Amino acid sequence: QVQLVESGGGSVQSGGSLRLSCAASGYTHSPYRVGWFRQAPGKEREGVAGIGLNGSTRYAESAKGRFTIAQDNAKNTVYLQMNSLQPEDTATYYCAASYRERWWLLRDADFGYWGQGTQVTVSS
Questions:
Q1: CA distance linking residue 113 with residue 54, whole number of Å
Q2: Which parts of 8-105 are beta strand (E)?
């Protein structure tokens, strides 16, 4: 199975940027898709962005135009570049791996392997 570790979270002011990283280890030979999710206090976890086997990407409406997901296969790492951050982006961000075809729906039930999360705090 694959293990995931997120990094890159932190505190920024409104309008700032952060780049999150998701490093995979373990059994990475089987192809998997990666998604980024976030969960704010008192709210359900929601999908933010995902990337498929052929590099295809999917974004939640809240992320379109501001966030970019990319992968570096040589490093087994997926990145989430977040620009124009707003206070409502404050959450714990998780990356997750999926072996399912329906990964693009960005439903957390379709992702079986999860990282521990990294906190993103955006102040106004």
A1: 20
A2: 10-13, 18-26, 33-39, 46-51, 57-59, 67-72, 77-82, 91-98
d(CA 121, CA 88): 9
- CA dist 111 and 46 (Å) reads 12
For 85, counting Cβ atoms within 10 Å of its Cβ (0-12 exposed, 13-18 middle, 19+ buried), the class is buried
CA distance 43 to 31: 31
CA distances from 42 to 33, 37, 60, 73, 96 (A): 28, 15, 19, 35, 21
How would you write the pLDDT of the chain (124 residues) with one tens digit per residue?
899 999 999 999 999 999 999 999 987 677 889 999 999 999 999 999 999 999 999 999 999 999 999 999 899 999 999 999 999 999 999 999 999 989 999 999 999 999 999 999 999 9
In a 3-state reduction of DSSP, which class is residue 89? helix
